[in-house]
Amino acid sequence: MKIGIDLRPLQTGHKFRGIGAVTYYVTVELAAMKGPEDQIVAYLFEDGEDIDLMPFGDDVIVQRLPRPKHGRLAKVFPSMNDNAMAIVRDTCDVFVQYDFHMGVPKDHRSILLIHDIIPIQFGNRYPFSYLADYKTARRVGLSRKHAITEKALRRYVYIRDLNTTLRNATEVLAVSESTARDIEAFAEHDITATPAILGFTPEAKNNRSELLMLEKARLDGLGLKKDNFLFFVGGVDDRRRIDELVAAFNYLRSTGHDLKLVLGGHDFEPDMSKVFSPAARRAIEESSYRDDICMLGFISDQERDWLYEHAKAFVFPTEYEGFGIPILESQAVGCPIVVYNNSAVPEVAGPNTFLADDWMGIVDRVNDLDAMSKSDRKQAAEEGIEWVHKFTWRKTASSFMKAIERAANK
Q: What is the pLDDT of residues 221-243, one digit of tens each?
C-alpha cells in the first residue's frame, strides 16, 4: 500500500508550531510501523523549500503539488485544487492530512486530523484574538476594513474549508476526546471522530543546555529563585485568562504571599507593546503589584526549563485546549501546574496537576501547594514525570495506522 502523507506543513510557519511537531513525529513513527510492502509518498509544494526526508525512511517517494491559484476568497488559506487532487489520487492509496487548511482530495481514501476549532469557537467571544462575525467585530471598535477582511471573511473561509475537508475525508481523527466531540457537533453532516491522543517527547535532564551568562544575569536581576514566583509562558490570546491570573496573583500578594509573577513568550515584551488583549493589558497595568510582574518576552528553551524547574507552580488559566502540551511540558520537569478544569485538560492532567475553575480556585490551589510537605511535593513531581511518559508518538501513530487500515478497506 502507498501511504500518502502531506508534509507541506513542514514548509510553512507550522514547522515551528504544534502542527509541525505532530506532522514530523507521527510521520517518523508511521514510517517505522509500515509493512514491508508499504511505501511512504511524501507531498510537498513544488516551489517550497526542500526538507530533510531521511527521518521518514530511505525509500520515500516525493510528489510535488502546485499551489492553488484562486480568487481572493480562497486565498485566505492554502487548500488543494483540482490539479493537486488528481496527483494525489494517482500516486497513493490512502492520504494522510495533519492540517485541514491544506485540504484532502475528493473521492479518495483519506485520513484527516483535527487539532481544535478555537478560531471560530471563541471568535465572537474574543474578537480581538479570533475570527468574529462582522457585527461583533464592529461592536468592539474594529474598523470596517478590519472587521470584513481580517475577521468576517477569514471566519467564512475557515468554516467553509473545514466543512469541505470534513466532507471529503474518509476517516476523521482528533487530538483528544474533547476535540473529537467538538468537531462532531460542528460538522454540517454526521461524522464520527476518533481520538488519536498526541505524544510528547520529554527531554532528558542531562541533555538540557545550561543558561547563558546573559540569561542567568537577567533572571538573577529580577530576583527569581526557587519557589518565589508563579510562571506562565504562551500567548496573550484571550482564552488564556491572563486577567484572571493577575487577579489571583494580586490576591495572593495581598494575603501575605511573597511571590512574583513571571510572564514569558513573544507577546509579553517588557514594554507591553504586543499585549493586544485589552483585558490582559488592563489587568497588568492596574495591578497594585505591577513592579513584581516580570515581563520577559521571548525566552530560550534553557530559560523556559529553568523557570519550570524553579517556579512554585506553572499557572495555566486556559478556557480551552485541544490537547494541552504546556501541561505535559511542566510535568516533565517536575513543576506543579495549576490549570483550569475544562476541554481536554482532564485527559492530559495527571499527578502534580491542580485543577481550578476560576481565579479564586488558582488562589486555593496555590495554598494547597503551600500546605504540602516537601516529601509529598517530591513524590507528586516524580509521579508527574512518570505520567508524561504515557504519551508516546508510537501510540499516536498506531491510531493513524488503524485509521489507514479502516480507510483502505472501505
A: 999 999 999 999 999 999 999 99
